[in-house]
Amino acid sequence: MSLRCRMRGEALWRPFALAISRENYGSSEDEATETELPAENLISCVAILVNAVDKGISNEVLEYALTSAEFNLLRTCAESGPCTATQLAGILPVDASRISRTVTRLVNLGLLRRQRLRNDRRVILLHLTDKGIDLTSRVDERVKVHVSRLLEGVTEDEMGAFTSLASKIAANYGALRESR
Questions:
Q1: Which residues contact 133 (CB under 8 A, 6 or more apart)?
Q2: What's this model's pTM, rounded to 2 decimal places?
Q3: Which helix (H) or strand (E) holds 174?
Q4: Do 37 and 59 sit in the same domain of this protein?
């Protein structure tokens, strides 16, 4: 699988695994440029990858009049069970005010419901409704098909290397957040 990564106007073609693989970085491949900085190429490739996934999700949720952010919130609730808006803001790449607006819209659509805790009335748990569970399940199947198309030609080893790298970067990000 090849991605086109742009850096300072320069178009680079290289297999994604080579673009992010430290041991292969800077190889003498025709497409590789010896002067590239790994961080800059990673940023470009991650931006392309996020765009490919997000656009695919957007296309799949369009007929349900949802945004990809709304679907991601529903899917997160489906995967983690009842959660608070604060917990969602810590997981999803949106701020707390956007979470609040999104939750309100999903409640109005009948896809989420709010429940106050009896022992602490300040805490509001968010639950998927039956309608929300059904919709999330149907859309998730379509999203999985899109993702499988994106992964065509990617080997298990390449996926393992990508997952390992992404996990390390996420752990570094978590450590940075905690140190602030």
A1: 78
A2: 0.69
A3: helix 156-179
A4: yes
